[in-house]
Amino acid sequence: MKLIDVIIPKENLNKAYKKVVANKGAGGVDGMEVEELGAYIRENKDTIFQSIRNRTYMSKPVQ
């Protein structure tokens, strides 16, 4: 099994999102606050999943 196969399942990504929200994670260097993250993911989930699958996803730098 490849690492990408572990990352991709929606259940895994949902779990990561819930963990960030529960920990009251800080906003990122992109200026997006945690409270905005849910709406952003809902609007862009297909693009996000596709870029992860295609290995073209580029994460933003962290603070």
Report on this structure:
This protein is mostly helical. The chain has one domain. Helices cover 60% and strands 0% of the residues.
Q: Give the strand tally.
A: 0
Principal-axis shape equals globular
Alpha-carbon Rg, integer: 12 Å
> Gap between N and C termini, in Å?
32 Å
- Class by alpha and beta content: mainly alpha
Order of helices and strands: HHH
Question: How large is the share of residues in beta strands?
Answer: under 5%
Report on the biggest sheet. Answer: none
Helix content: 55-70%
Overall domain count: 1
Low-confidence stretches: none
Number of helices: 3
Q: Provide the residue-averaged pLDDT.
A: 80
Name the features:
mainly alpha; 63 residues
Helix/strand layout:
Elements (H helix, E strand, L loop, with lengths): L2 H5 L2 H13 L11 H20 L10
Outline of the structure:
The chain has 63 residues and is mainly alpha-helical. The chain has 3 helices and no strands.
